[in-house]
Specification:
alpha/beta, Rossmann fold, Arc Repressor Mutant, subunit A, 2 domains, 5-stranded parallel sheet, 4-stranded antiparallel sheet, 8 helices
């Protein structure tokens, strides 16, 4: 059974860090956004089973995020978190398209109960597997696969590969990787990102995939699918800038 994927949009760093830990401990896969602008970006790029949305956030507030989400036709369940607990505030959030409302402060037990209720799916519902080119991600096994080949990924490698697949041939910046894979509060050097990208390249080759992870120097990474060998070279997509590793390599902290 695949992991249930959540987006937590909460600007209070300590609270966000605690909620991510609680939700991951309960078995959920969690991406965190520190503001409404980033939440909208992730919602446009990713596929989530539930959005846990704080109302009072910088850049774009939670209600604006919710209204834009619904206007775009996205019906993902939304649980609102807010210190505003008046009846009018609850009605405003529900009218904007929220599925449920949880006032601060709240207990972890109640948050998890509401999360379970909102992420229940009908029997037999199938979600498309994350894929790019000739490879795909096995969410149940936390592995990357191609054809009949499959190789396990560490938790960190899986989150990184999933993010790269979401962005596909579009660039994924190092900053996006640091925040999505390790979290805003993690003390991680950029060299650790390079080490994990290098490991993923080796594992893609190991399963026989033609997908490559190209470096965009000073920017980030993107996935590419080279043309088959029998196609003219002029028809093949240009490769990225060759990767240059850091002087000191960090260990995988995933």
């Amino acid at each position: 059974m695949r992991d249930v994927r959540l987006l937590l949009a909460e600007d209070e760093e300590e609270l966000s860090h605690a909620l991510v830990a609680i939700l991951r401990h309960a078995g959920y896969e969690v991406a965190a956004s520190p503001d409404g602008e980033d939440a909208l970006y992730q919602l446009r790029r990713g596929d989530f089973d539930l959005v846990i949305l704080d109302i009072m956030m910088p850049k774009v507030d939670g209600l604006a995020v919710l209204r834009e989400l619904r206007a775009a036709g996205n019906d993902v369940p939304v649980l609102i978190l807010t210190a505003r607990s008046g009846v009018d505030d609850r009605v405003c959030g529900l009218d904007a398209g929220a599925n449920d409302y949880l006032g601060k402060p709240f207990s972890a037990k109640e948050l998890l109960a509401r999360t379970r209720a909102l992420t229940r799916t009908s029997p037999g519902a199938v979600r498309p597997r994350p894929s790019f080119g000739d490879m795909w991600l096995d969410e149940a096994a936390h592995a990357v696969a191609c054809g009949a080949g499959s190789v396990d990924l560490t938790a960190t490698e899986y989150r990184l590969m999933q993010l790269l697949v979401e962005h596909g041939s579009d660039r994924t910046t190092v900053d996006q990787i640091m925040r999505r894979v390790w979290g805003d509060l993690a003390d991680v050097e950029q060299g650790v990102v390079w080490v994990n990208v290098s490991n993923l390249r080796k594992k893609l080759r190991l399963v026989g995939s033609r997908v490559t992870i190209s470096s965009l120097r000073g920017v980030g990474y993107r996935l590419e699918m080279p043309a088959p060998p029998d196609e003219p070279a002029s028809d093949r997509p240009a490769s990225g800038v060759p990767d240059v590793g850091p002087a000191g390599r960090g260990a995988d902290r995933g």
